[in-house]
Amino acid sequence: MDQEKQRAITSLFEVVSSIERKWANEWNNHNVLGFSKSHILILDFLSQEGPKRPSAIADRLKVTTGGVTVLTSKLINAGFIEKTQHATDRRASQLKITTDGEDILEESRQQVSEIINNMFGMLSAEEVQTLRDIFSKLLNTDSTRHE
């Protein structure tokens, strides 16, 4: 890799790190519900796709099943999700969003909308799509291949 490209990538890394910190700060400033982004992602996943096994949630969030247990415990204790028996495999449990969970998810969507507007409102739809395409490409590249 040439030196100019290397400098640009280093600068990009710094910018992405700053954006990540800004995103976390925006979340913390608007988060009146007391849940992390991961908690909200779990609620959204269960709302959109119905009851799921913890392993499916782990796959979606790219965390371990132990991580899912930690995250879902808070949601279960708050009454936002519940454990149910799997319809066909009684040995397996599933997690299901409750009515209260749907309500808190709707509140969180309003918070997320404010955060998104604060962070990305100045970008056009095309610019947002370009960012998404680039970040998706970075996530899907084979890390062993270098150009």
UniProtKB/TrEMBL annotation:
**Entry keyword set:** DNA-binding
Give yes or no: UniProt keyword DNA-binding.
yes
Coiled-coil regions, chain positions: none
The record's PROSITE patterns line, in alphabetical order, gives: HTH_MARR_2 (PS50995)
The organism of origin for this protein? Lysinibacillus agricola
Q: What is this protein called?
A: MarR family transcriptional regulator
What top-level branch of life does the organism fall under? Answer: Bacteria
HTH marR-type domain residues are 9-140
Short name of one Pfam family: MarR
